[in-house]
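Contributing new records

If you add data, match the layout below exactly. Sequence lines come first and carry their own label; structure lines follow with theirs. Keep one chain per record. Anything else will be rejected by the validation script.
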Amino acid sequence: MEGCDGRHASRNHYTDAAFLPKDTVILTAECAKFRYNKLDLGNVQSIPRVLDAGLAA
């Protein structure tokens, strides 16, 4: 997932990915990571469910 929902709560396109199947790992880039960091999405086996690719504009 890359992109940005923006700072307004009504912009939640990327954050809706939190409803993906529980065995899905989400690779983030850009500013989407800041929204995911606020969510407790757990792990897939021993891997964190959200991984940050470290890219930034």
